[in-house]
Amino acid sequence: MSNIRAAITGVGGYVPEFVLSNKDLEQIVETNDEWITTRTGIKERRILKGEGKGSTDLAAPAIQQLLQKTDTNPDEVDLVIYCTATPDYLFPSSAAIAAKKAGINNAFGYDLLAACSSFLFGISTGAKFIQSGSYKKVIVVGADKMSSIIDYTDRTTCIIFGDGAGAVLLEPTTENLGIIDEDLHMDGVGEEYLLIKAGGSKFPATQQTVEDNLHFARQDGKTVFKYAVSNMTSSTLEIMNRNNLNAENLNWLVPHQANKRIIDYTASQANLPVEKVMMNIEKYGNTTSATIPLCLWDYENQLNKGDNLVLTAFGGGFTWGAVYLKWAY
Quick one: pLDDT at residue 130? Predict the structure, then answer.
């Protein structure tokens, strides 16, 4: 059995310049800063402006920064896994478009759509390609232009989401580092509670679906919250128990930035103090596939080689899980 593991050897990130604050939203929809902050922990979010711009316009600069930071020749990249809920098109793949924009010409790649769990599923998948011994450099990018699918008259969704991208480089290691364990799940019971109803093969786009606003993300917030709290917690505790992790030897919990109350509950059930929980939801909101890599990007200078990290997420579908890794640099 191979003793090769996949390790994260670099992180890149990108968020747009335009800031949409809670105060700004007060002018758009019936809400206020206190209401948003109390229920979500969000103070502002970034929005990608400009005609004809998609999520690859977020992903490409994140990938380019990653290549520069790790001194990686784009021609050496073997695979690009593009994790998203907002691809530029149904096809061609956003992986192909982002790779081209970043100067990557010799890799293959594909899009991975698992809502907010996409990046978690992506690094797990990328690790398998590394462990096979066939691939040496795999880029996993999480990128979402959530502003493209949000109804800014719906205060239950428009206060939550923002735009951004984060990317990591996976490379092989034979040290006791890298991705060690995972607990990943899905359950189609979530289909009706968090979705974009129209635009797929079941309800193709028509004039009527546009008039009925069926191309925006909708959610049953209470149901999603209940499932998210339960499942993120259960996966986090399962990973910790299996790997003898506790509040003393776990350095960081890296949760999907969906809602501060969900994050706080998951951390409390793991008996983790707030200083061991990565959190940037207040300035980016929920960037869906990008939240976890953006946390790693923001906290990179606080990470040390050998640190124990548990990454956990919950998304539409429903999808959820946790990944345990040791930081490699």
Answer: 98
On whether the CB atoms of residues 45 and 285 are closer than 8 A, the answer is: yes
Choose the catalytic residue: 22, 231, 259, 286: 286
Pull the structure tokens for residue 162.
């923002």
Residue 79 pairs in a beta bridge with 108, 138
What is the signed CA dihedral for 184, 158, 163, 250, rounded to 10 degrees?
A: -40
DSSP string, 303-324: --TT-EEEEEEEETTTEEEEEE
Are 187 and 318 in contact, with CB atoms under 8 Å apart? yes
CA atoms within 13 A on the CB side of 300: 16
pLDDT digits (tens, 9 = 90+) for 81-104: 999 999 999 999 999 999 999 999
Q: What are phi and psi of 217, to 5 degrees?
A: -70, 135
- Kindly report, residue by residue over 290-321, the tens digit of the pLDDT: 999 999 999 999 999 999 999 999 999 999 99
Question: Catalytic: which of 83, 158, 256, 308?
Answer: 256
User: Is residue 256 annotated as a catalytic residue, yes or no?
Assistant: yes
Q: Is 32 a catalytic residue?
A: no
Over the range 69-92, which residues count as b (16 or more CB within 10 Å of their CB) and which as e? ebebebeebbbbbbbbbbbbeeee
Contact 171, 179 (CB under 8 A): no
Selected catalytic residue, list 116, 158, 231, 308 = 116
Contact between 107 and 100 under an 8 Å Cβ cutoff? The reply is no
How far is 248 from 71, CA to CA, in rounded Å? 35
Q: Is 116 a catalytic residue?
A: yes
Helix (H, G, I), strand (E, B) or coil at 188: helix
Query: How far, CA to CA in Å, does 292 sit from each of 53, 117, 198, 265, 313?
Result: 23, 9, 28, 17, 8
Question: Residue 78 — φ and ψ, nearest 5°?
Answer: -90, -35
Domains and CATH numbers, the chain: 5-176 (3.40.47.10), 179-326 (3.40.47.10)
